[in-house]
Amino acid sequence: MTMDLLQLIALVLDSTIRLSIPLICAAMAGLWSEKAGVVDIGLEGKMLIAAFASAVAAFVTGSAWVGLSAGILASLVLALVHGFAAITWRGNQIVSGVAINMLAAGLAVILGNAWYGQGGRTPSLEGAARFGDITLPFAGWMRENLQGLGLIYHEVVSGHAAPAYLAFFCVLVTALVLKRTRFGLRIRAVGENPAAVDTAGISVTRLRYGAVAISGVLCGIGGTYLAVAQSAGFLPHMTAGRGFIALAAVIFANWRPWPALGACLLFGLLEAIAIRLQGVTLPGIGLVPVEAIQALPFIITIVLLAGFIGKATPPRASGLPYVKER
Amino acid sequence: MSAAPIDLPRWADVALVPLVSVAAALLVAGLVVVGIGENPLEATALLLRGALGSAEGIGFTLYYATNFIFTGLAVAVAFHAGLFNIGGEGQATVAGICAAVACTALGSVPGFLAAPLAILAAAAGGALWAFIPGWLQAKRGSHVVITTIMLNFVAATLIVYLLREVIGKPGSMQPETPDFPTSAVLTPMHRLLAPLGINLPATPLNTSFLLALAALFAVWLLIWRTRLGYAIRTVGANPRAAAYAGISPAAVTMIAMTISGALAGGLAVNEALGVQHRLVLDFTAGYGFVGIAVALMGRGHPVGVGLAALLFGVLYQGGAELSFDKPTITRDMVVVIGGVLILFAGALDGLFRRLVASMLATGRTA
Amino acid sequence: MASQAPPPAIELVGISKRFGAVAANRDVSLVVARGSIHGIVGENGAGKSTLMSILYGFYEADSGEIRIAGVPRRIRASADAIAAGIGMVHQHFMLVETLSVAENVLLGAEGGPRLKGGLAQVRAGLARLSRDYGLAIDPDAIVGDLSVGLQQRVEILKALYRGAEILILDEPTAVLTPAEADQLFALLRALKAQGKTVILITHKLREIMDVTDRVSVMRRGEMVAHVATSETSPPALAEAMVGRRVLLRVEKPPREPGPPVLEAVGLSCRDARGTEVLLDVSLTLHAGEIVGVAGVAGNGQSELLEVLAGLIQPSRGVIRLDGRILTVADRHPARLRERGLMHIPEDRQRSGLVTAFSGAENAILGYQHDPVFGMGPFLSPARIEAHAREAFAAYDVRPPDPALKTAKFSGGNQQKIVLAREIEREPRVLLVGQPTRGVDIGAIEFIHRRLLALREAGVAILLVSVELEEVMALSDRILAMCGGRITGERAADAADERDLGLLMAGVTDEAA
User: How far A108 CA sits from the closest chain B CA (Å)?
Assistant: First the structure.
């Protein structure tokens, strides 16, 4: 294999990782919420408000980490609004999610415009206000001494911002906690049959708030990555549907954490390829219709939901407010 | 927070609860205005003057309201069948594409037929894009909420591709089609009324406003006065009872989604055929999502939808005027108000019913 | 002496609970002795389940006191009840079907933030309980794959694993086969022998007589009797439940049945999971006769009604109406109605009515295409209301207000709306499911009289009811069903409860 091709693959995989990080965070967020029986189509809005809040806080304080905290906090507030409507007041969870998406989209631009007067954009971040890429140990050495593997390690595994590694860590934690712990068992149970959890002497409300709050935190990390690591500041509508692609990934993975990670990486790869092929003319095909590649995650999800290949089975109680039956 | 449903008198249910949630949403918006250092009362005055203070303002207000009537009705009709169609944006997009394709093909059609055919093409496009999730829900059990969201994105990428590669204006860098033939575009209201001696300032308000009013009446007739409407409401309220009554929930699901999509296509009629006279990217501009707020606030009833659409028309037009005077208060304020209203009138309905119930109770004892 | 006697396991004193305007429990008191099996009987809606839900912390009582082993306790959530040593087996199982048996038992009793240790303990605990009570089960089986009987076993194991001293069972046999029910009763006796206290809620008097030591009777939210089982009898209990001597012997003049109207031959059908729920069922309805179907709930009666009404399609078999075979297209509720086959469904709230609609709108459900109600595609509200006004008057629906939301009518009046709708069009075949479930006494008599009048008028009626007395009182012939099959047929005057009970339990004529 020529080094050029390997280099190309490494570059595409590197950008796959970068593009997947927000998807991974949002997918884990959606997974927690929906596993607990609370449908969350507000992933997009929570990431967006987190992107905005983190960019503002990072700019004001000059610290990316303060930005991350602010992003998580802002997303958490919206998550609790969702919880208040969906859990406490047993409102329609989809309606609440739509509301959160609109609220975030409007609020971020208004405040951004009022504070910085750049049409909603925040000032660009520099230095410590932005998460820099971390070079993992031995990256340089491996690159020098181990041909292909070293290149992959150097380009793909190493050289990402701190929230990126945090995102992968979150997948591991999500999988382990759901499978191996008391909290995880209860979350899995409450999304299937909340009455069983209630009669076992456990508070349905507390569990669901817990899951919704975790969803808020994870969206906060994803949104922060977008604004403070991937970009150098907030742009209006910068989430660009990633919350919904993450939702698609969760469905694609049948509500399981590791497959959801796989789906996010796949969708990230599709996006990376689409960017690579932008304006490229291939023999026999002509100008590559990148829109077709961009639409693929959505089309695949529809086909999957229709049960033409495989079958997506959501947690049985998802979307249903818990009401004690008389 | 008991599970017992809160019983309210009918007038409170249909009028007071929505009013209280609108008031609360505006209050939240006022707080945001205060938060960015402006005077909310002054802002409100500017907004109202901009929307209703002149014939021109009113024309713009009604033009925006036209969009919201269509997208609000689209959501409302699906609601009655127990379906949540969040795909208004995508359906309107495909409606626009179909209208544009029809317009290029209409060169040879007699003039008086061109506009009706273009409108029908738009309705058919919206209907098609809503029929797909309807069919998937009815026959394959795929949840309409998720499929309509996904199809919004598919439509968004489709229009980008088509405007660039297929139906775009040759040689233009802008993602837009060539201008539609004049026979296919809708008459502006100021020109329509001028021969009658009514002189209106030039505004984007066009005959699709009349179409929207007709749609309001038609939806009322459909839902409350026809056998099909009865079937739609039965399926929405109790699908098992519908099956018992010999009504096919699957068929009603598909029909209701189709009607819903055709109504969403009205957005393309107003924007593409009525105002811009060509198809541009992103012409849906979030009107489809605001339609959810309109339907929720209007309680799914055409009268309520009409009033809610008017309110949002005022907010849009007034908001545009306001942002001239106060550049810090952009039109995104309307998106915030829309979001808060969806939250209050939709997801927190229980809270507001409880509030109104206790208000009424204190009113009685006092 | 008084100081020697152990305090009762449970004392409920003056428990009251209202849901809105409905008093579900009124000043209810109950004493359950330690180490006994205590039955609570009452009709549907008498308040038994509400009382037990209060004891289990699902609802909190508006007033009253709960004492467990002599100690006053506030039970505000299920956790309090579990801590007080109470376990409950709900009528609808509180199980998570996607989880394993062990995980279900573990839920709420994990013993620490990590599952590993708890799971090992559950395995050991299940093995111990299996030895002690013969409750064998595979801890790794997924609950959704288990039979109903085994799922109930998981529920019982959950309670026992948590160390319950008091076990409440709410209508436990409604879903069990007779053999499974016998196993359950053997288990209850074994628990009693170990000193555990059992509360058995049921409306089946035979079970009460078989297994309990004492029995309490509830009626309309109140406790009306407490007796030792050995000192009472089914008729005495029935009287206490209903509030006066039950005179289900309705006036039924003899009548020669007319020609056959509806015939079914070899009907079978499968449910969504592919299990056969109806097996080779054949029956004939003649004009002017009532054929009753007796059976324990869930033995195929519902599916029989739904197949005949065109709501589900049979996998095999033929249905003839007036001698003509019904095609797939014919077997549609709307087509069947046009041909005079009407259906009063078993569950009026879930399928017979749209409770969000007005009374008038429900009075045309299924007949919304009738030209009487409007021109062409339109419906006329005035005509719909006039029609309802007439029907409500004729059937004594109270209040006679067509605009009232259907949810606001009482159960009996809701049933009258359904009855009026289906009967007034002069059916030739009437399928009736549970006509008097959740209906007050006055309305029951009204409904029975109407059904007999229809028989008189020559209508062929199929009556499905879990109330054996109702079936026996109204029918000319009785079919017994078990496990989706018809296990026997009796002429009404030759039938007795014991004999039918055997058929319902699956002891067929051939086997006997």
Answer: 9
